[in-house]
Amino acid sequence: MVPPPRSGRHDGSAFIRACRSQSVPHVPVWFMRQAGRSLPEYRAERGAGSILDAIAQPELVAKLTRQPVTRYNTDAAIFFSDIVVPAAAIGFGVDVVPGVGPVVSRPFTSKDDLQRLRPLEPEIDTPYVIEAVRILAEELPVPLIGFAGGPFTVASYLVEGGPSRNFTRVKALMHGEPGLWHTLIDRLTDLALASLRSQLDAGADAVQVFDSWAGILTPRHYEELVLPATRRLFAELAVSHPGTPTILFGVGTGELLPLMATAGSGVVGVDWRVPLDDARRRVGPGIALQGNLDPALCLSTWPVAAAETREVLLRAGTTPGYIFNLGHGVLPETDPTILEEVVRLVHAEGLAGVETPT
Question: What top-level class would CATH report for the domain 14-349?
C-alpha cells in the first residue's frame, strides 16, 4: 500500500513552498557546501583528519550543520555529510583526502568488483547518519535537506579512482561494457535510495541528488546511460515518501536541462553558466529552479556580489518556484560576511512568487 503524502512541521516554510512551486513570503536561500570550509567556526570545530571521521560523530555533524543557518540566516540546512558515505560504509575502500576529494584504493574495473557493492543497511552501516538527522530534526528552526550522490557521479569516482578531468575510464566502461555499466549504476541507485530513505525516515524534510559530473556527457549519452537510473531513483522515492520535495543538481548541465526536467524531481538546480530565464525555457513549466550565482564572484567586492545577486534575481523572474543558491559550492576562500549580505539582499529584494499582502 502506498503511504500517505508527507506532512512536516516545515511545510509552510518558504523553502518547502518554493520546492512545490507555491507562493512564498520571500525568496528562500541556502548555499551548497554551506556547512564548509569558509567558516572559521567550522574549521575550529571540524579539526584535522578525514571528513569521514567527522561524519561518524552525530553531535559534531549536528553542530556543523547548524552553524551556517545561525551565521547566514538561510532558509534551509543542508546535512553535513559526503556523497561517498554509503560506498565507504559498505567497505568499498573510499576515503576523502583533504585538498583532493574522494579517492578509491581499488577502483572498479570489472564484473568481479560488483561483489564489493553489497546493499546498504543504514541501521547497521550508517547509524551515525540516522542519529545526526534525528538530532537536527528536533532542533533546527528550518527544513533539513538530506542528500545523496547521483549514481553516475558516484560511479565516476569508483571507476576513475578519484577526481578526474577527462573521465576516460568511466566513459570507456559505459560504452565498452554497457551491460556491466547498467548493473553498476543500478547498484549505486539502490545505495542512494537506501541512504535517502533512511535520512527521510529520521526526519529530513527534503532531499537533493548531487549528480555533479553529469555535465561531462552528451545529451544522448545522458539520456541512454544515466537518466533511466535517475528516473528510477526519484520514482521509487515518490512511492516510499510521497510529497517529499526533491532537487536534482549537476555542474555544466545546461544542455541536459530539458532531460533533467523529466527525471521526476520537483526542482532542478542550475549552475552559473545558464541564465535562469533561459533555464526556465529549457526546463519548461511545473518544475522549480534553484541557483545560480557564480561562487567565484563572492570572492570579489560586495558591490560586485550585490550587482550579480540582483542580476540572478532579475533573471529568476516572478514565477512561483524559485530558490536562490550558488551555481556550485561555496569556495573555501569566501568571506562569510559576503554571504551574510547576499542572504539579506535576497530576502529584501527577491520577488519570485512572493505572496502579495491583501
Answer: alpha beta
